[in-house]
Specification:
This protein has 77 residues and is of the alpha+beta class. The chain has 1 helix and 3 strands; from the N terminus they run H-E-E-E. It is 23% helix and 22% strand.
């Protein structure tokens, strides 16, 4: 019984450590890509891989990108 608890705790610890990276402070500000052509991304996109979630059981995830105004892209997930 004790060995099973140690194995379970070890596996849970490994999953918890690999799940996310915690960072303190402000969020990073990535640089904007030069010469970005947003019109290439307009339309419906389908996810090809995902982690299981309780709110999307059996659903294919999509994101629809649309041009709202110059320099503004709308997203509907």
């Amino acid at each position: 019984m004790k060995a099973m608890q140690v194995i379970s705790l070890t596996l849970l610890s490994v999953l918890a450590v690999s799940a996310d990276v915690l960072r303190f402070g402000r969020c990073p500000k990535p640089a904007v890509q030069a010469n970005f052509n947003s019109s290439m991304y307009i339309g419906k996109w389908y996810e090809i891989m995902k982690l299981p979630t309780f709110f999307q059981k059996g659903e294919c995830g999509t994101a629809t990108y649309s041009a709202k105004s110059p320099g503004v892209i709308g997203v509907l997930n």
